[in-house]
Amino acid sequence: MSIVTPHVRKHLSADALFHLVRSGFASLPDHRLDDTEISLTDALMSAFAMFSLKAPSLLAFDKERAEGNVHTIYGIVRVPCDTHMRTILDPVSPKGLRPVFTSVFRQLQRGKALEPMTFLDGHYLLALDGTEYFSSKTIHCASCLHRVHRNGSITYAHQMLGAAIIHPDQRAVIPLMPEPIVNRDGTEKNDCERNAAKRFVAKLRQEHPHLQFIVTEDSLSANAPHIETLHAHGLHYILGVKEGDHAYLFQQVQGAEHAGRVISYERHDRAAGVVHRFRFVNDVPLNAANTGVRVNFIEYWEIGQAKVQHFSWVTDLRVNTRNVYHLMRGGRARWKIENETFNTLKNQGYNFEHNYGHGEQHLSVVFATIMILAFLVDQAQQLCCALFQAVWAKLGSKRMLWERMRALFYDYDFASMRQLFEALLYGFKKSSPLVTLDSS
Ligand SMILES: [Zn+2]
């Protein structure tokens, strides 16, 4: 019987991407004057390996680390103990990690891995959303947000603006470097999602001046200043709107309806027993204060046998009966930033909300950012590595996949992650353990 090995695209394999991440880390400046026994690269790569292996805590990683595989697979010379890792990583500026995200992204572009993510006329759908991943009454650092309660007590928190390229037909998402929402210079003034979005968009454009994006966000973002920011950076948008928050807009649509300007459209999906009902109108003002900001409006009902779901959006893309169904799918795909991204990070082995260590300066942000980097590398495998897909299908769930991967990693020596995945897929002959005797 011959075995057909699933096709692996060499430059996009886990091993190639680990190598790329490691060389990215190696270009970060190490400002430490003393104690350079363990390099900054090794400390960063150890954190990456911890998230890549989905080790449940720093301690578990520290106790179980298998020096052999950590060296061959992740290229780490020396793994710091947990306390040491925290000390080395706390002063690292999170923005130094951005080029590492970019180099993985460029590799995906070169390997044409992003082609299946194209949504409309060469544009990618980019979902943005804020999330909180840490809060505490006692643990805090210089970059924590402060929520002061009426009784004077304070809750400390960490939030970030997450961003991912999504596609309605793809389960994989491609996360970009998130924008931390943090206190600047230990001031009392809190940063906020809106400011983070402004910074994010400016950096996105700096980094990818020619990529075409359609940004999709929830209704909090459907405000005139944000739309103007998107417009100024050449970004298209599909943003959620709600009648309660956008009363003026809905009145304008009602007016347009009376004037006969609103178009109704229906599509029947008999196989699924669903009716897709739309009404849309182009060129209406978003609100009374900014009548210069004009948008195209889509309202949509998904009418199933048991329930009706209702959504509405505004977009700068001109709506017609040919594209309204596709635009609706783009607007609805926004949930992937919550579900396929944040929920995966929180509940599918990455422990996004677990406190791996808080630090006094940046540690909490550094850990969260490196976790998303590990998630990016995993998603790249999910999107384009047939070997990864085959192992996932065989084991039936990600949870099982990470569990089996970790067990093998700690118990056997492998030359590469590819060899480990092949062992998971085809099985392997187990040998008796070679017991090391203590001769002292
Ligand atoms: Zn903090």
Mean pLDDT: 91
Helix-residue proportion: 40-55%
Query: DSSP helix count?
Result: 15
Q: What's the number of extended β-strand segments?
A: 12
How much beta, percentage-wise?
A: 15-25%
For the largest beta-sheet, the strand count, sense and barrel status come to: 12 strands, mixed
| Low-pLDDT regions | none
Q: Cofactors and ligands present?
A: zinc ion
What's the end-to-end separation, in Å? 49 Å
Envelope shape: globular
Order of helices and strands: HHHHHHEEEEEEHEHEHEEEEHHHHHH
Characterise the protein shown here.
The chain has 440 residues and is of the alpha+beta class. It has 15 helices and twelve strands. Strands 1, 2, 3, 4, 5, 6, 7, 8, 9, 10, 11 and 12 form a twelve-stranded mixed sheet that branches. Helix 1 (14-26) runs antiparallel to helix 2 (40-52). The mean pLDDT is 91. The structure holds zinc ion (ZN). Zinc ion is lined by residues 140-141, 143-144, 156, 158, 358, 364.
Structural features:
alpha+beta; 40% helix; 15 helices; 440 residues; twelve-stranded mixed β-sheet; binds zinc ion
Topology:
Elements: H1 14-26, H2 40-52, H3 58-64, H4 67-74, H5 82-89, H6 98-110, E1 118-120, E2 123-136, E3 145-148, E4 154-166, E5 174-175, E6 179-181, H7 193-207, E7 213-217, H8 224-232, E8 236-240, H9 247-258, E9 263-269, E10 274-285, E11 294-303, E12 308-315, H10 324-332, H11 335-347, H12 363-384, H13 386-395, H14 398-411, H15 417-426
Parallel strand pairs: 2-7, 7-8
Antiparallel strand pairs: 1-2, 2-4, 3-4, 4-5, 4-6, 8-12, 9-10, 10-11, 11-12
Helix pairs in contact: 1-2, 1-6, 2-12, 6-12, 13-15
The chain binds zinc ion.
